[in-house]
Amino acid sequence: MSDEKPSSIVPLLSLALHRIRSTPPRIIASPATQPRRAAVAIILRVAPPPNHVFPAPPQPSAEGGSPANVPAPSLTEFFQLDWVNAPGARPEILFLRRDRPDGTEGGRMSGSGPTTRETHVAFPGGKTEEGDEGGLYTAMRQTWEEIGLDLAESSYTPIGQLDDREITTSLGKRLLMILSPFVFLQLTPQTTPVDPSPGTTLHWVPLSTLLPKPVGDGPRWSSVSVDASSRLAPRHSTIMRVLVRLLVGGMKFPAILIPASFYADPTLDEKSIDEKRAHVESAGPLPREHSLQFRPRRVRTDETLKLWGLSLGMTLDLLAHMAPPDARRGGSSATFLPPDAETELMRVPVMAPSLASVFPRFGYPDVNFWIWVFGKRYRAVIRGWESSVRAGGTNDRRINWTGSALTTFYAAVRKALVVVIVVRAIFVLMGLLFGGWLVFMR
């Protein structure tokens, strides 16, 4: 990858973070019947080029003490630093790979080689607990507990919050919780050492692998196959699961492929872990002369990570802030969408990439056709989002566009599934009657 692409992304990242900081997020209040909430941390950094020469650190004062504490740069000052604007500087985003609770690996990729495996990535975060002071506190606490990264340190600054998202059951029938994504920026060229929980690995992924050409390398779109019966049929009813699998088929969610072999971080040894935790939990700063010892973490090189679902939606929410003005008004950044999204999702405009990129396709063409038939309200929501963006430059904060799109889309899916099942049942019944007539009447 050439140096020109990463360096050209830095101004777009600056634009996005200033937009996020100045734009109030759309907050969804928790209903009384479902007060559960969660929060995640979207952590960004700019990796300096390997050959960049940094100035010598400040010398101790004349009294023999430690060097004077240098105040953290503001957001504007950060993007004026030499190492941030150096040729070859690479903006990156942090994803986590979590092992499954039962310790099993991800399924084999369809059409992949015999040694290739797929796993899914997400952001650090989790559920809000009693005593949390808000979503920002939840995101910071969960990040510390999960990977040992203290976002309260001066090396990091909170940028702002993206729009809240609703997490629902299958087909959007019942609200489970409200999810709040918070964006953080690392202000230093070196990343604070981490202590991930067992089974968790960190992957710093260049934004160039997620951005469309010519700014980035163009995302490598794939899909995640999900058995529709696991979401539509009762868990303990084998007959219903088999019946739904035969009548409806499978579901495919768009996903972006992320190679896992390039972006793993080192971790601390046990002694350094204990010392760092003691400093943080006692609210004391880590001494500058403290030497942190690393131990290498082995990372599989035969697996491919997949970004999909909520994590993909939040990532594309972030990337949408990086789109140039012409793209935000319907310009030439349609590669924010999967290659077949324009056909399968009824010509969804580029203004809402996260809306179009997280919806599933079904394995049977007639299911997708009936979703289109009943998707008039869904398409009206997308057109409303587009009109709002073109009129005001940013979407109308009073309207829950993501929630409205999900609600109307899955309402169309439910109607389509009813029609498909009824039509299939009619054809099966007609086939049985015709077969009986051939047997008994001839």
Tell me what you see in this structure:
The protein is of the alpha+beta class and 442 residues long. 36% of the residues lie in helices and 20% in strands. The strands form two sheets. Strands 1, 2, 3, 4, 5, 6, 7, 8, 9, 10, 13 and 14 form a twelve-stranded mixed beta sheet that branches. The longest helix is centred in the last third of the chain and has 40 residues, at 401-440. 36% of the residues are buried.
Distance between the termini: 72 Å
Strand count, sense and closure of the main sheet?
12 strands, mixed
Sequence of secondary-structure elements: HEHHEEEHEEEEEHHEEHEEHHHHEHHH
Which strand-content bin applies to the residues?
15-25%
| Average pLDDT taken over every residue | 76
> What is the helix tally?
14
